[in-house]
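Researcher: Please translate sequence to structure tokens.
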Amino acid sequence: MKSWLLCLTAGALALGQVFGQTGANAATTPHDRLGEAWWKARLEQKEAQARTQHDTVFIGDSITHNWDNVAPDLQKQYFGDVLNLGFSGDKTQEVLWRIARIDWKTVAPKRIMLMIGTNNSGHGAGERPENTFEGIKAIIRALRAACPDATITLLKIFPRGADDQDPRRRLNDAINARLPELADGTHVRLRDVSPFYLLPDGKTLNKALLPDLLHPNKEGHRIWAAVIAPEFMDRLGK
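Model: Translation complete:
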């Protein structure tokens, strides 16, 4: 009986591993949050804005969303007119659902800045890094197909937690380690702002810039813009 139970348990574990590596990956399965009133309202607002052309598009979660709330003046100063498709709390699966609804021929962006994945690692989601990576890969694939003339700047996920021992930071670091696989240097460029948010030891988060250990404050946004904007805007043409 005991050996039979051991075999059954081993078989279930093996099945779970196989299942987790195939269609069960939530990070690659488009998902909406229409049941949340604020999310639905922002979706309607942003989809209305997407009915006109925008050279510059941001895509992401609350860290990107906060350009609209924390630093709208800096967003305009450094990036001009932006269609900001950042939604607080979104994971890769919500981004996949949202971008499938956009008429990208109308938006016709020249440049897209993408950062996503920290919510797959946090908020109890605890996605395996390889699952989140596949979600980001699916987003890149969808954007390349929809916007072949746009250059995508893929940002490494910003550091979170007090230091490099934070379990969510470590999950994000594992995702970031694989992101170079998605960059070709021409159509998709990988960039990293993270070092600017750390103290000189390269491990401890600078709370003067990310006071809640996750979201940049206004000065954190200014640093982000100063690091990214010169190449993001000038090399691709204003």
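Researcher: Any highlights?
Model: The beta strands are 56-60, 82-86, 111-115, 151-155, 188-191.
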